[in-house]
Amino acid sequence: MSWFPILLAAHIVLAVALLLPSVLLPFVLRRNDGASHPATKALTTMQGTGTLIIATGLAITGTAMLLILGPELLTQPWLLVALTLYGINLVVAAVISRPNLRRLIGLSMAGADDDTWSRRARQQRYVAYGMASVIGVIGFLMSTKPNLW
After folding, report:
1. Does residue 19 sit within a domain?
2. Is residue 105 in a domain?
3. Can you give the pTM of this predicted structure?
4. What is the domain range of residue 111?
5. What is the C-alpha end-to-end distance of the chain, expressed in Å?
6. How far apart are alpha carbons 56 and 52 in whole angstroms?
7. For residue 33, is it within any domain?
8. Looking at the domain assignment, is residue 149 inside a domain?
9. How many structural domains comprise the chain?
10. What are all long-range contacts of 28-34, with beta carbons under 8 Å and residues at least 24 apart?
11. For residue range 73-110, what is the model confidence (pLDDT) as tens digits?
12. What CA–CA distance (Å, rounded) separates 16 from 119?
């Protein structure tokens, strides 16, 4: 039995899980219940303490796939573009999305005015739309493996 399909599935799940809180929290977070909603709590926990565990698993599965498929895979243009886009998405999640989500949750608990909260929530949803779009492009590149150059 080949372990590659299981390894690939685990790698994909971990890659998506690493970005999932930054993409979903702006839509799950509501003004009424803020951080007390179970989905919000699960996603913030996943975003906080789960990040290191998920990233470690992602690195292990990625390294294992490179050992199985060979390092020449890293010369594929579609993979290089996909990895670059994933890296950009990680930077956006770490530098823009996560700090803004923490402030947004803090505002909902502090009882800030509705206009400020709504404006910031809308901005955060736009960031999430962009991140989700990049994830879609990565999925397209990984599934079609186009000849880019």
Report:
1. yes
2. yes
3. 0.81
4. 4-144
5. 35
6. 6
7. yes
8. no
9. 1
10. 29/101, 29/104, 29/105, 29/108, 29/121, 31/108, 31/114, 31/117, 31/118, 31/121, 34/105, 34/108, 34/109
11. 888 899 999 999 999 998 998 888 888 877 777 765 55
12. 27
